[in-house]
Amino acid sequence: MNKKLMLLATGVLAALAFAALPAAASAGEFAAHCKNGAATCTGNVVGGASQLKNHANEAVSCTSVDGKATVTNGSPTGFLELTFTKCVETITGFKFSCTGTGLAAGEIKTGKMVTHLVYLEPLPNTTAGLKVTLPGKGTGTGGVTFSCAGFAKKTVTGSVIGHISNPNCGNPSASHTADFTEVAPGTQRWNQATTTGEKTDLESNNDAGGVYSTSSQIGSGVITWEGTEVTLTC
Which has the closest alpha carbon to 9: 104, 137, 116? Predict the structure, then answer.
């Protein structure tokens, strides 16, 4: 296991997936509305396998993810917290477990991440996306940190954008799905709002302190809203 493992970092974030919903919307963003009129809506996130890759096609893979998502009524923003399970590195062939501090083997928790609902293409296209941002890079306390087989410590930070594949724009829905894909190892399918906004990048470092390198996230997840429906005004 070498520093290449570190390029990966948290596919984990994957699957990062998911449909949290994201105050007045800025350019390139749209709002969500809770049908029950509550100030915030909460949902449960469930996803399958996810993977984080670097440009050498080396990865950290997890078999499932679950968590909580919230959306602020009338806003594009919200929060997302995820737990990935049975996470392993795929570089050595031994598939050593990758684990967050104090967690069960193969388990990684993201902590609270900020989400934004964004247009992936310029209007009048209404391709809906979800931008997920981890805590700040290089702060010593930010990001998501884990180690594989008790060594090879890794920190992941930055932002990743996925496509909301069942947006049902303008119609109340009890659930939403977000898909995170790549066009090549280490290269995310979507990395800008409206294809012109600031570029996003999911990053990981070498041994929790080295140079940060870009990675791509692959995964899909569904958020099911608790006791209400949510309308995306995309």
Answer: 137
Q: Looking at residue 57, what is its pLDDT?
A: 82
In degrees, to the nearest 5, what angle opens at C-alpha 163 toward C-alphas 61 and 136? 65
DSSP 8-class letter at 6: H
Contact assessment for residue 222 and residue 45, using Cβ atoms and an 8 Å cutoff: yes
Other C-beta atoms within 10 Å of 85: how many?
Answer: 15
How far apart CA 182 and CA 161 sit, in angstroms, is 10
More confident residue, 206 or 160: 160
Q: Which of 138, 185, 176, 191 is nearest to 17 (CA)?
A: 176
- Could you tell me the pTM of the whole model? 0.86
Alpha-helical runs (H) found in 15-127: none
Environment class of 153 (CB within 10 Å of its CB; exposed 0-12, middle 13-18, buried 19+): middle
> 169-207 burial, b if ≥16 CB within 10 A, otherwise e?
eeeebebbbbbbebeebbebbbbbbbeebeebbbbbbbe
* CA–CA separation, 106 and 60 (whole Å): 11
